[in-house]
Write a structure and sequence with these properties.
The complex is a heterodimer of chains A (280) and B (612). Chain A is mainly beta and 280 residues long. Chain A is built from three helices and 17 strands. Chain A has one domain: Sandwich (Jelly Rolls). Classes of the chains: A mainly beta (280), B mainly beta (612).
């Protein structure tokens, strides 16, 4: 997705990289070896309505970025740890809600939670069942970031974007790898598009299956992107633990800015996040 | 839109052998206009529009071979100053399998199309959907008009309609192409609303009244992530009243009240609750006069009537101008066959006859009959006349206006009262020859009025209809001789026997005790004791006379030393004067013992006091 400090992703350039796949048609030639997964970590978000996400599993990022620059992307939101921005809802979903409200000098509030230092893992299957928000300038994401980000820096730490969506394209998600030599607009990215459906109407399962020398991206069980060290235009930096991030950004260089026609509030609902280890 | 002129441009009949169909179903054709008229489609231009505005364009197109071309005329085009019409189909189509009408459009220059939509069948248009203010420019753009509840559109004739007006007076051209119904999974998140989504409250509604719900809409999130709002016909909604014994609501959203109480009106489209509601509180049957107002007896040739069954009325443009901040509602009712105007929620109401102003210069009185169900204790009713002056139109520096306040009494509850107000009481009215407006106001929320006219029956008023103005000076600065507002000098003789022929009495004028001198020759007032008013500056008095030609007031100190001060007569209503005491020099102001009036006619006097 992006790092905490620099990098500006050009939406224009990025759009050139879009390859809108048509629907859920499985590639007949895709080869996927049978993998056995064992659940090692999950959050089913089964707390009581109004509760903040479990602090044993998640911590909050607060504010507009460490340099107050919209998390390096000119994002507009101020992330808070208030229940109105992040809480369990009455249906047992995690609700991350972007709101149009003046708060600490920002025009919008939202939430960004991460498992940093609480749960980090190398390899495995990371999946989340999500119903996305919508509207121009709304930018929900489910992603992994190398846990050495604070020591190694970005993009050397590596980033696996399992799901990013631009609210003005509610039928398209993007999966992207960022690393040295292929970061920001140069990230190795691929789109998955519904021809006649949207990601904000029903829940969909977004997953990455990650091993020493492969990263496979899935939507609802459909493999739409297979990457190996041969596919990246720099070093393969995906051989150390990563942590999970869920967030809803408002505006930014990737997504453009909300307009007067963007409906607020906008909520990303997460049914669960589950992490597996491969059992050989 | 007005009457329609159907112009059949093309009618490709839809040849289906109906008798071979198992059920009476209708075609599900999705296409409206792709590269030509789809099966059964016809075009009908609105009768008042430029009927030649539409044509098929074989050069400009988004896709395929042709598009729909609309030439919007210039403002004032003698052949019609806007473009508009309906694309219908016969037979109707079953659109229940679709959820949106889509098309591509562009214009010769940036322009905003007034409205487009579907469901206009040139009849009841039960399922009309309208997208207003469609902003076009010279690039092809895709547009979506969602179907709020597809299941009801099983036999729809109205495929498309549009209306487009000149932009800043100038015509332009726009094109529409690939017009078709689709079922798109990328249209989502429908919301519905009535009353623009507001929770409205309507209080003090009377039994039997009707109220039309309005501003029905839907929003849909488009494939572009933005919400699109469209206006809907009422028939997409099902309405519910929480209390049908108080108010019912029919399929057209007409709420009708039946009994006292409150009802909460809500709506749904399918199973989805609509935003917005109406809370209606019914106060009961209206309280109305049971008998008509008294029939006027003044000869018609002495009357200029604005509203009366007894006379031929002059043209009144409106009995309710609905001016800003006016809450008044007017209603024409009949009582025993007599026409009466009812005002409700009256704070003020403008009544206008400016298109033909009234020349009442030969008239003497203004008459109105008034009935109110409201309590009148300490309440007022105000009547303002406005004259537009010599230029006969509003403004121009020659307008004048004046207001008369009517108190209780003569105001009375649930009784007709007849007010005859001398036009002279409208003291600020500089002219009566271009009267253009009447404004009624006051504290009575409901009034019924009848017999509103000016008249001159050859008699002049014999006494004031209103009380003298209530003095506003602080009692501490006043030494009063005759006033209901202050303590008066005790022991004063209002009719000392000085040989005068004046008939003195005290009469109640609009509830206010007033001194009346009938047939004045001269008249004294003997103060109860000698008064030192040397610290005072003025003597105040209010006086009224319709027939006096001469009137003077004197102060008298021992000697006697006296000095007259001339008062202007006759008066136009009450005249208030504050006479500098210096005017009475050489009267000794430290020893004032008497007042004296001389002159002629019938005089009404009130509020005689010294003040500083």
């Amino acid at each position: 997705m992006k790092n905490n400090s620099k990098l500006i992703v050009s939406a224009a350039i990025c759009s050139l990289l879009f390859i809108a796949l048509s629907g859920c048609k499985k590639d007949d030639t895709q080869k996927l070896e049978q993998r056995n997964w064992e659940l090692v970590w999950s959050d089913e978000f089964n707390g009581s309505a109004g509760e903040l996400p479990d602090s044993a599993k998640w911590q909050f990022d607060i504010g507009n970025g460490p340099n107050n620059d919209g998390w390096g992307n000119a994002e507009l939101e101020y992330y808070t740890n208030r229940p109105v921005n992040a809480s369990i809802d009455s249906n047992g979903y995690l609700a991350l809600t972007a709101r149009s409200e003046l708060y600490s000098g920002s025009a919008f509030t939202s939430a960004r939670i991460k498992t940093m230092s609480l749960f980090e893992q190398s390899y495995g299957r990371f999946e989340a069942r999500i119903k996305t928000p919508w509207g121009p300038g709304i930018w929900p994401a489910f992603w992994l970031l190398g846990s050495d980000v604070n020591t190694t820096g970005w993009p050397q730490c590596g980033e696996i974007d399992i799901m990013e969506l631009r609210g003005q394209k509610p039928n398209i998600i993007n999966g992207t790898l960022h690393g040295p030599g292929y970061s920001g607009a140069g990230g190795i990215t691929k789109s998955f598009a519904f021809e006649n459906a949207r990601f904000d109407v029903d829940f969909h399962l977004f997953a990455v299956e990650w091993g020493e020398d492969y990263i496979d991206l899935f939507v609802d069980g459909t493999l739409y992107q297979q990457l190996t060290p041969d596919n990246v235009t720099g070093n393969w930096v995906f051989n150390h633990p990563f942590f999970i991030i869920l967030n809803v950004a408002v505006g930014g260089n990737y997504v453009g800015y909300p307009t007067s026609q963007t409906p607020f509030p906008q909520t990303m609902l997460v049914d669960y996040v589950r992490v597996y280890k491969e059992v050989k | 839109m007005a009457a329609l002129i159907a112009i059949l441009l093309l009618a490709v009949s839809c040849e289906r052998k109906v008798d071979t169909l198992p059920l009476a179903t209708y075609p599900t054709t999705a296409d409206v206009f792709i590269d030509g008229f789809s099966s059964g489609l016809y075009y009908a231009a609105y009768g008042t529009s430029k009927v030649t505005a539409f044509s098929v364009d074989n050069n400009v197109k988004y896709k395929g071979t042709s598009s729909m071309r609309f030439e919007v005329p210039n403002a004032g085009d003698p052949n019609g100053s806007y473009a508009g019409g309906v694309f219908g189909t016969n037979p109707g189509r079953d659109l229940s399998g679709y959820n949106v009408l889509t098309f591509w459009a562009k214009a010769s220059e940036p322009a905003t199309i007034v409205e487009v939509g579907f469901g206009n069948d040139m009849g009841a248009s039960k399922y009309k959907v309208t997208l207003t203010n469609l902003a076009l420019n010279s690039n092809w753009m895709e547009f979506y008009i969602p179907i709020p509840a597809p299941s009801v559109l099983q036999q729809e004739n109205g495929m498309f309609f549009y209306a487009a007006a000149p932009q800043n007076g100038k015509g332009y051209t726009f094109w529409i192409d690939e017009l078709k119904f689709e079922k798109l999974g990328t249209i989502a998140h429908a919301t519905f609303g009535i009353l623009n989504g507001n929770d409205s409250v309507k209080n003090n509604v009377e039994t039997g009244e009707e109220y039309q719900l309005s501003d029905f809409y839907a929003t849909f999130n488009l494939p572009t992530g933005i919400d699109q709002k469209v206006g809907l016909a009422s028939s997409y909604f099902t309405f519910t009243s929480s209390n049908p014994s108080v108010a019912t609501v029919n399929e057209f959203g007409i709420v009708k009240t039946a009994d006292t109480g409150s009802a909460f009106i809500t709506a749904k489209v399918g199973n989805t609750d609509a935003k917005g509601s109406l809370t209606i509180t019914v106060s009961g049957q209206s309280v109305a006069p049971t008998v008509p107002a008294p029939v006027p007896t003044i000869a018609a040739d002495k009357v200029i009537s604005l509203f009366s069954n007894a006379y031929t009325n002059v043209k009144v443009d409106t009995w309710n101008t609905h001016w800003l901040y006016s809450t008044a509602e007017n209603q024409d009712i009949q009582i025993d066959g007599d026409d009466v105007i009812r005002y409700r929620n009256l704070n003020f109401v403008g009544i206008e006859f400016s298109s033909q102003t009234v020349d009442a210069s030969a008239m003497v009185n203004f008459h109105i009959d008034l009935w109110t169900p409201d309590t009148t204790m300490n309440k007022t009713f105000k009547i303002m006349l406005i004259d537009f002056g010599a230029n006969g139109v509003y403004g121009g520096g020659d307008d004048s206006e004046s207001e008369v306040t009517v108190n209780s009494p003569p105001l009375a509850t649930q009784n007709w009262i007849s007010l005859n107000i001398p036009l002279s009481s409208f003291t600020g009215l500089l002219s009566k020859s271009h009267l253009a407006q009447l404004v009624l106001s006051g504290d009575l929320p409901t009034v019924y009025i009848d017999n509103v006219y000016f008249f001159n029956n050859g008699t002049t008023p014999t006494e004031p209809t209103t009380a003298a103005p209530v003095p506003t000076f602080s009692a501490a600065n006043v030494l009063s001789v005759f006033s209901d507002s202050y303590s008066n000098v005790p022991g004063t003789d209002l009719n000392p026997p000085w040989g005068q022929t004046t008939v003195v009495s005290q009469v109640s004028i609009a509830g206010n005790n007033t001194l009346k001198y009938k047939g004045l020759n001269y008249q004294g007032i003997q103060l109860g004791s000698s008064q030192n008013v040397s610290a005072m500056n003025f003597v105040h008095l209010d006086y009224w006379s319709a027939n006096s030609a001469s009137l003077k007031v004197y102060l008298i100190s021992p000697g006697p030393v006296e000095k007259p001060y001339v008062l202007t007569v006759p008066t136009s209503g009450w005249t208030s004067v504050d006479i500098p005491l210096s005017s009475f020099s050489p009267v000794d102001l430290s020893k004032v013992i008497q007042f004296k009036f001389d002159g002629n006619g019938d005089i009404f006097i009130d509020n005689i006091f010294f003040h500083n």
